[in-house]
Structures are given as structure tokens and as C-alpha cells.
Write a structure and sequence with these properties.
The complex is a heterodimer of chains A (252) and B (186). By secondary structure, chain A is an alpha+beta fold. Chain A has 7 helices and 9 strands. In chain A, the strands form 2 sheets. Chain A has a 5-stranded antiparallel beta sheet, with no helix packed on it. In chain A, helix 2 crosses helix 4. Chain B has 2 domains: 94 residues, Rna Polymerase Sigma Factor, Chain: A, CATH 1.10.1740; 73 residues, Arc Repressor Mutant, subunit A (Orthogonal Bundle). About 10% of the residues of chain B have low confidence. The chains are: A alpha+beta (252), B mainly alpha (186). Chains A and B meet through helix 1, helix 2, helix 4 and helix 5 of A and helix 2, helix 3, helix 4, helix 5 and helix 6 of B.
């Protein structure tokens, strides 16, 4: 029957349409989001659908927001611009008219800064390492690496980004999350707010292709961080405290 | 027609301005698009305060991301509405919502044809192509796709809302998308 064929066919192009339309949920949504990150063709199909379906937006009713919205936007981009030249990590706190996130992120990022500083000290005295961080074999070229370690909690993450191939490689140890939670990787551009790079495994080696957008964020001077988040299959807008691991990206 | 294309040109120029860090350009984009984006968001996130927070997030994202806007891939208003819609959907998924059960029939979402021509900000051709292709779908397919789009319903929410079995609804939407794909040349 034709109906069954359409329902059961797993034509990725239609799945991309479902993702763009926003109807997917649960594990289907998680699987589609993962595919969007790892498969350039699928990501292109999602963009195609967004552009086509987006033409419907013109049919939406207009509604007038209050003046406070524009004032809030100005305040927030003032903060972004003021912090652009400032490497201080506190700069990442978004200023928001409402909502609880601002101060807690600022506080947490002071923590990130401290963690990053501690990491530098730690890395400069490698002989004292109580646990062996997972290693990724060094390869010549303009690669970016970050070694994130929390010796006390026996957690570590080694990452390498190869700008040439646009690939992210991770070696992960000890990120055991409670049921329903997953480790999530964040990039914090110098002077910017944390941006999710999605869920990562709790243990072992992991590699995936980076989107152009992601590659542009992963530059020397940016910070990588890991938090535990609800395993919703989606990237979160803001990290949940505490930050488990954090460290700067450096060129090798 | 002339006014329509003037607004489009103004928007296109302002998007380039934002990419260059021009605040006045952001104000221009806000003036031209905030009512439309707020309408899009408010339909998905009906609580006014939450919807205004989402709107604020959207323009901060636009300020950050304008350099990544590629006019070859679509019109600025489509790009902006996609950011608004996705941000509203993320907000909705974070807190969830309660879907009130079952309206007896699928309500038809306002037809885009009723919009005055001088309010159009996106390429008329894109919208016309989509409208033409949507009209070729069956009523159930078209209405369920439009409801999912405008109200941000997931499969199970929409099935509950219009009281049809989940499999039937998935069939309507997947068949509708397949029809659009063929019609729009995907």
C-alpha cells in the first residue's frame, strides 16, 4: 500500500524535511540531529527544506512586541561588543532582561577561567599527573588540540581538530552520566558565549565532521568545556552547571 | 510592487550592514521584520513575556550570525524566520507544553494570498512556488503541514490536537513532503 511505503521509507531527504518542519520527537529527533551533524548531504537537505518551507513564514500574522524588547537587544549587544576586545572569561555572560541564566553563567565561567589557569599549570608539570589522559597521536600540521583533565574525578577529554579535513576527534575517559543525562561538549569563543557542539560519548574514542559554522568557532584561544545535560537529543542553549572539564584550544 | 521590492532591497542591504557590525543596520532589520518574527514566535510560544524573550534572543543571534547569511541560499526574511521559528521551538521543547485535545476538523491556517503585496519581504517567486505546490497536495496533507509549521507541533502533539491516529498523521505529512519535494524540484 502506498501509504505504508511512504511512512516506512527512510528516504533521508524526507527525514530532513520532517526535521526542518519540526515534527520529529524523541529518538527520531535525536537520530536526525546526529545525522545533521555528521552528514553533509543530510545537513544540506535540511537547509533546502528550511529555505523552501520558510517561504510560508510570510503568511504568519504580524504582532507588535513591546519597546522593552529592542532596549533589551541593545543592552545585550552592548555587552557583546564591549567584551569583544576583552579576553576575560566573565565577558561570556549574556545580559538578559529576564531569565535566570545570566549570573549563573558568569559565575560558572569564572570557574572556567580558574580551571583553564589551573590546567595551564597542570600541563606545565606533566610528571605529576595522577592519571594518564587519553592520548591522540600527534600529527604535523596546523591542528588544534585541547587536553581537558580533572584528576580528582578521573575525568579527561583529549580533543584534536583538523581544520583541513574539518574533523573533530575526541578521546574520552570517565564521563559517566546518570541515566537520562549525557555529556555535552561546548565551545566558548574568546569573548563569546558558550555554544553547544552536541552530546558526546561517556567513554572511548569519537570522531565526527564539523560544519563550517562549527569550524569557524574552533579557533586557537577558544575554550572547550564539558557539562552533563538532559539527554534530549538536542543541543542546549546554555550549559548546566557545574562545568566538568574546561581547557583552551591551542595550535600545534 | 515597487514598494515591495524597495523593502526587500532595504532589508538585503541592512543584512550586509549587520555583518559589518553596523548597529543602525540592525535597527533597520528590526524595524522591517520584528512584527513578522514576533507573530511567528507568538504563535508557537503564546505567553507574551516568553515570546518577547525569544524575540530578543533571535536578534542577538542575528547580530552574531549575520556574516553567515548566504543570500544565494534564500531570502533574508526566510533566514530570519527560520531562526525565529527554531528558537521558539527550542524554547517550547525546553519547558514543554500542554496540547488541548481535539478540534473536530483541521483548522485552515490563513492563506498567504491575503497578505498585501507591499508587505512582502521575501522573493515573491519562492512563496508563489510553495503556495502552488501546497495547493496540489490533498487538504489533509496541506493543512497538517501548515499547522505543524505555524504552531510548531510535533507529530504526537498534532495527532492529539486534531484527533487522528499517529500513523495517519505521519502518512499525511510524509506524503505531503514527498509531494512538495517533487513539485519544488528537490
Amino acid at each position: 500500500m502506498a501509504d505504508d511505503e511512504v511512512i516506512q521509507s527512510d528516504d533521508p531527504f524526507l527525514t530532513a524535511g520532517e526535521l526542518a518542519l519540526g515534527v520529529l520527537e524523541g529518538s527520531d529527533l535525536a537520530a536526525a540531529r546526529r545525522l545533521q551533524l555528521s552528514d553533509v548531504t543530510f545537513a544540506g537537505a535540511v537547509e533546502w527544506w528550511e529555505a523552501r518551507l520558510g517561504a510560508m513564514s510570510e503568511g504568519a500574522q504580524s504582532a507588535l512586541p513591546s519597546d522593552a524588547v529592542w532596549q533589551g537587544i541593545v543592552a545585550r549587544i552592548d555587552a557583546i561588543d564591549a567584551q569583544r576586545d576583552m579576553p576575560a572569561v566573565a565577558a561570556m555572560a549574556p545580559v538578559k532582561g529576564r531569565g535566570p541564566a545570566g549570573w549563573s553563567i558568569a559565575a560558572a565561567l569564572v570557574g572556567v577561567s580558574a580551571a583553564a589557569a589551573a590546567l595551564v599549570l597542570f600541563l606545565s608539570t606533566p610528571a605529576t599527573s595522577p592519571i594518564a589522559p587519553p592520548e591522540i597521536a600527534a600529527v604535523a600540521g596546523d591542528q588544534l588540540v585541547a587536553q581537558l583533565t580533572d584528576a580528582e574525578a578521573s575525568r579527561s577529554l583529549a580533543s584534536r581538530i583538523d581544520p583541513e579535513s574539518g574533523q573533530l576527534r575526541l578521546a574520552i575517559a570517565g564521563l559517566e552520566a546518570e541515566p537520562g543525562k549525557t555529556p555535552e561538549l561546548w565551545v566558548i569563543p574568546a569573548g563569546g558565549a558558550p555554544i553547544s557542539l552536541g552530546a558526546i560519548p561517556q567513554q572511548g574514542n569519537f570522531a565526527r565532521d564539523l560544519s563550517v559554522e562549527e569550524s569557524s568557532l574552533l579557533a586557537a584561544g577558544a575554550t572547550l568545556a564539558v557539562t552533563f545535560e538532559d539527554d534530549t537529543g538536542e543541543r542546549h542553549e546554555t550549559p548546566t552547571m557545574p562545568i566538568l572539564l574546561a581547557g583552551p584550544l591551542a595550535e600545534v | 510592487m515597487r514598494r515591495m521590492s524597495a523593502a526587500r532591497e532595504e532589508l538585503k542591504g541592512a543584512m550586509a550592514g549587520i555583518a559589518g557590525g553596523d548597529r543602525r543596520a540592525l535597527k533597520t532589520v528590526y524595524r522591517l521584520t520584528s512584527a513578522k518574527l514576533f507573530g511567528t514566535i507568538a504563535r508557537i510560544v503564546p505567553d507574551r513575556e516568553r515570546a518577547e524573550d525569544v524575540l530578543q534572543d533571535v536578534y542577538v543571534k542575528v547580530w552574531r550570525r549575520a556574516a553567515r547569511f548566504d543570500s544565494r541560499k534564500g531570502s533574508p526574511i526566510t533566514w530570519l524566520c527560520t531562526i525565529a521559528r527554531n528558537t521558539a521551538l527550542d524554547e517550547l521543547r525546553r519547558d514543554g507544553r500542554i496540547v488541548e485535545r481535539a478540534e473536530a476538523t483541521l483548522p485552515e491556517v490563513e492563506d498567504t494570498d491575503v497578505l498585501p503585496a507591499d508587505e512582502w519581504l521575501c522573493a515573491m517567486e519562492e512563496s508563489e512556488a510553495l503556495a502552488r505546490c501546497l495547493k496540489r497536495l490533498s487538504g489533509d496533507q496541506r493543512r497538517s503541514i501548515r499547522l505543524a509549521f505555524f504552531d510548531g507541533y510535533s507529530y504526537s502533539e498534532l495527532a492529539l490536537k486534531i484527533d487522528v491516529p499517529l500513523g495517519t498523521l505521519k502518512s499525511w505529512i510524509r506524503r505531503g513532503l514527498a509531494g512538495l519535494k517533487g513539485c519544488l524540484g528537490g
